[in-house]
Write a structure and sequence with these properties.
This protein is 29% helix and 19% strand. The chain has ten helices and 17 strands.
Length: 428
């Protein structure tokens, strides 16, 4: 029986009438105080800084049984976005990894499972690695590498980004493609410290364009660090601001396995894994954040270590004396993917501010901050450190940490205004 035509809540027009949105303007990079000097001026080819906004895909027919799979969705993305050619193959690797990791997490507590507990090693951040951290990191690396579309991968669990294309050329099992390549950054298992207790965990990923012609002279001429050409290309392609993201998303391993993503078209899409079909099915065609919701998600045990503007705003939310004039409900899981997922669906604000123990913040800019900020902004929200937009920050190193407050516009703007007032008062 022929599937019926449907109209979905996101942009639906005939393919012939699809038009590209206005190009991104060059972003303004704010002046920041860094722990060490910048080593180059031009980090990425200027044409990548002026990317055109992606266009939402079109579906005139949808099967009643299977709906719209992630595979079909990405194929349609490529048809209306020539600059995102081959991205579907990359997402194929991501969704295969997500299915494998979901199965590992669900079965981790069964008798005979050997994936729980500590690996016995410490990662570059000085954190004890869980066995699942190491396993999931390897699953993602291999899946992305075997797509043949990834030039560089950078993981929270690795010391430095890796040029996988160099490995591919020497590996007969991998079909190496000299065409479009991407840089993929990821946190393989966010919230892994909670996995032994069965708390929701997740995978966070961001995808940048790979630029072979990028300027690496700043790295090669640096007296501070010894870089060879391959290392320099890896670093320059990886140290990009969130504004350069081509796509980003996360996978939540919880009551169901959810994959939430954006291609920068002003829409955020949610897919749910149908385990009987073995496919991610479009379940949330257009996720939009309400302008305000009285829900806050912070580790309030650190309240006394936050700076004054953050404490004042938080006090207003707790007491009902803030701009909204109502008391806020506190909801905090302790896994960023879980907390951001709830924030995207219900609204409110999630944050991990800087404190006296983590003066630069705790969340990683490349692996957590930028991809999640991209999602939040595309859903109509805001993401800030308090003093600057997260998406504008150019990383100085692959494991740079930043303070983060993200969510509904009104709540995040209240935080931004508090920092502005505080800084202005201190200048007088």
């Amino acid at each position: 029986m022929k599937a019926p035509s449907v109209i979905l809540p996101f942009t639906l027009v005939s393919c012939a009438n699809v038009h590209l949105a206005n190009a991104f303007t060059n972003h303004q990079i704010s002046q920041r105080h860094h722990s060490f000097k910048r080593m180059f001026t031009t980090r990425i080819n200027s044409d990548l800084l002026e990317q055109q906004q992606a266009v939402s895909p079109i579906f005139d027919e949808v099967c009643d049984t299977t709906g719209i799979t992630l595979t079909r969705f990405m194929q349609n993305v490529e048809r209306v976005n020539p600059e995102l050619q081959e991205l579907s193959q990359l997402f194929s690797g991501i969704q295969t990894s997500a299915k494998a990791i979901s199965n590992l997490v669900k079965r981790s507590h069964l008798p005979g499972s050997s994936v729980l507990g500590l690996e016995g090693a410490v990662n570059v951040q000085g954190e004890d690695q869980k066995k699942l951290d190491v396993i999931t990191n390897e699953i993602l690396k291999r899946a992305l590498r075997f797509t043949g579309k990834v030039g560089i991968v950078a993981s929270e669990e690795e010391d430095e980004p890796m040029d996988v294309s160099a490995e591919e050329k020497d590996d007969k099992e991998v079909i190496y493609d000299e065409g479009s390549k991407y840089v993929t950054v990821f946190d393989p298992l966010d919230g892994s410290s909670n996995v032994d207790a069965g708390i929701p965990t997740g995978t966070i990923f961001g995808i940048f364009h790979h630029d072979e012609s990028c300027d690496i002279s700043g790295f090669l001429d640096s007296d501070e660090i010894d870089f060879n050409v391959n290392d320099a290309v890896c670093m320059v392609n990886t140290l990009q601001p969130g504004n350069n993201l081509a796509a980003a998303g996360y996978v939540l391993y919880s009551s169901s396995t959810f994959l939430v993503m954006t291609i920068g078209s002003g829409e955020v899409y949610g897919f749910t894994l149908d385990e009987q079909l073995g496919e991610f099915i479009l379940s949330h065609p257009s996720i939009r954040l309400p302008d305000s919701t009285p829900i806050m998600s912070f580790n309030e045990a650190n309240w006394d270590m936050w700076d004054e503007p953050m404490r004042e705003v938080h006090n207003g939310w707790r007491s009902g004396t803030g701009k909204a004039g109502s008391r806020y409900t506190s909801r905090y899981v302790g896994s960023m993917v879980a907390d951001v997922h709830r924030t995207l669906l219900y609204g409110g604000v999630f944050g991990y501010p800087a404190d006296t123990k983590n003066i630069s913040g705790k969340l990683r800019l490349l692996y957590e901050g930028a991809p999640m900020s991209f999602l939040i902004e595309q859903a109509g929200g805001l993401a800030t450190t308090g003093r600057e937009r997260v998406m504008d920050i150019i990383p100085d190193n692959v494991h740079e940490r930043v303070p983060i407050v993200m969510g509904s516009k009104n709540e995040v703007q209240e935080v931004i205004d508090a920092y502005k007032k505080h800084d202005s008062d201190n200048l007088l």
